[in-house]
Amino acid sequence: MAKTYDKKNHFTLPPPSLTFLSTENSDFTYRDLYSFTGNLQHILQPYKPGNEHPLMIVSENSPDVALSIAACFLLKIPVFPLLKNSTKRDLEKILSEIRPCAILSNEQNLSIKFGDIPVLNITEEKLKYSESNQPAGYAFDEPEHIAGYFLTSGSTGQPKIVPVKRRQVFSGAVSSAKNFRPARNKYWLLCLPLNHVGGINVIYRSLLYNSAVFLMPSFDTENVRSLLNENKDFEAASMVPTMLQRLLDHTFFRVQFGFKALLIGGGPISTSLINSSLTRGIPIVTSYGMTETCAQIAANPMLKPGGDYIPKKSVGAIFEPNEIEIRDEQGRPLPYNEPGQIWLKGPQVFDGYLDKNQNAAAFDEKGWFNTGDFGHLNRKKQLFIENRRSDLIITGGENVNPMEIEEAMNLIPGVKESAVIGVPDEIWG
Fold first, then answer.
1. How far apart are CA 379 and CA 47, in angstroms?
2. pLDDT tens digits, residue range 70-80?
3. Whether residue 49 has a cis bond before it, omega within 30° of 0
4. Is the pLDDT of residue 135 over 90?
5. Which domains does the chain have, with CATH numbers?
6. Nearest to residue 341, comparing CAs of 329, 358, 359, 323?
7. Are the beta carbons of 142 and 74 closer than 8 angstroms?
8. In angstroms, what CA-CA distances link 161 with 49, 157, 291?
9. What is the CA angle 61-63-64, rounded to 5?
10. φ/ψ of residue 131, rounded to 5
11. Mean pLDDT to the nearest integer, 180-185
12. pTM
């Protein structure tokens, strides 16, 4: 199920003097990153990392984690990021399918969970920077190498391991840049967890764009409001709808004039939230994607000047050269404006789950991927998400979209936010 990647869409290594990463208390240039990368390469060499033996990183958001992820991308070493409080079920699933070459962390008791797999302390002196290391031999190439492994539950609730290839990262970065691209020495705010592809993509794309990351340990409403409202060095941010809502709860929240895009993903966004953002001039970019597509594979830049009009409820067109089809339950293509299952194919779509037994139901014989989501296309091939399959409620034989019910409930005076779930019933199902 190999996918075509346009090698003309190449990227260049950032000059060492540019800013790569900042936090509230620290700053790192690309020179620091290259030095860190050289040291990490030397440390990992005895453990023989490779496509089938990734470096597992178990920690919360921190500068060392971000530097390690970026360094591994330069070294073409796949990473497997996990939260330190990952469940026993997830850990057992991972170790039954893949053996990491080593584990990088700042936790002290990981050896208890992972047996004889080597554990390296991410904050040890040996990971300090050395000025002697230069960016020799690093390149944004090898599109078919694996960039990272990510855990996803999908629509079944069962954990699946998704290998994400460098090709997917490159292709997504090229497409996303058409909507927004932070300039050199300008920040992309990262407050999402780094065990998800949406968070780690901020690091990957900043590397490819030669721009900078501002890393927060977690989302802090007041700090984010202040940064986006007052600091002209911030040009982009990635968030989920709940984070955006918390920002808008502050009556006077605005973004400074040079801010380019607030990318929204990770779940449906209500029309009222879109309208509130646009009323304040916040350049939100709604999107559609998943771990299997290396995050967003479609986007709707609401306030981008020029181009075709895209309805607010649409997540935009699928990024070219990726393809989309809307099909019925029997796998037959449906006409425009008729809802059905969303199928995808192209360089940004993964090649299959690590557990080959999970691929039969996910792909057809021609390599099209069944996302498990429902939506429709208008005549301009702009995508409208009807529902994620995992959220769909079937009652009395009818499909009920909880998003529509939630939007209606949110209009009731006094209701700030609502969630609709299905509960088993003897009569209604």
1. 53
2. 999 999 999 99
3. no
4. no
5. 23-139 (3.40.50.980), 392-429 (no CATH)
6. 329
7. no
8. 18, 13, 10
9. 95
10. -65, -15
11. 96
12. 0.88
Say if CB 198 and CB 192 are below 8 A apart.
yes
Q: Which residue has the higher pLDDT, 396 or 232?
A: 232
Q: Give the closest residue to 241 by CA, choosing from 289, 200, 199, 286.
A: 286
* Closest by Cα among 226, 207, 208 to 216: 226
pLDDT value for 69:
97
Tens digits of per-residue pLDDT, 209-239?
Answer: 999 999 999 999 999 999 999 999 999 999 9
CB 170 within 8 Å of CB 143: yes
CA dist 295 and 194 (Å) reads: 13
Kindly report which listed range (106-110, 182-186, 187-191, 317-321) carries the lowest average pLDDT score: 106-110
d(CA 140, CA 304): 29
Q: Which amino acid is at 226?
A: S
Query: Residue by residue, what is the 3-state secondary structure of the chain?
Result: CCCCCCCCCCCCCCCCCCEEEECCCCEEEHHHHHHHHHHHHHHHHHHCCECCECEEEECCCCHHHHHHHHHHHHHCCCEEEECCCCCHHHHHHHHHHCCCCEEEECCCCHHHHHCCCCEEECCCHHHCCCCCCCCCCCCCCCCCCEEEEEEECCCCCCCEEEEEEHHHHHHHHHHHCCCCCCCCCCEEEECCCCCCHHHHHHHHHHHHHCCEEEECCCCCHHHHHHHHHHCCCEEEEEECHHHHHHHHCCCCCCCCCCCCEEEECCCCCCHHHHHHHHHCCCCEEEEEEEHHHCEEEEEEECCCCCCCCCCCCEEEEECCCCEEEEECCCCCECCCCCCEEEEEECCCCCCCCCCHHHCCCCECCCCCEEEEEEEEECCCCEEEEEEEHHHCEEECCEEECHHHHHHHHHCCCCCCCCCCCCCCCCCCC
In the structure encoding, which two tokens stand for residue 342, read together?
A: 């969303």
Predicted pLDDT at 390: 61
Phi and psi at residue 313, in whole multiples of 5°?
Answer: -80, -5
CA 115 – CA 111 distance, rounded (Å): 5
| Contact indicator for 35, 129 with CB cutoff of 8 Å | yes
Would the CA dihedral through 408, 409, 411, 416 be positive or negative?
negative
Cα distance between residue 205 and residue 373, in whole Å = 26
Residue position matching structure tokens 């346009």: 6
Q: Count how many Cα atoms sit within 13 Å of the Cα of residue 198 in the half-sphere of its side chain.
A: 19
pLDDT at 117 over 70: yes
Amino acid at 46: P
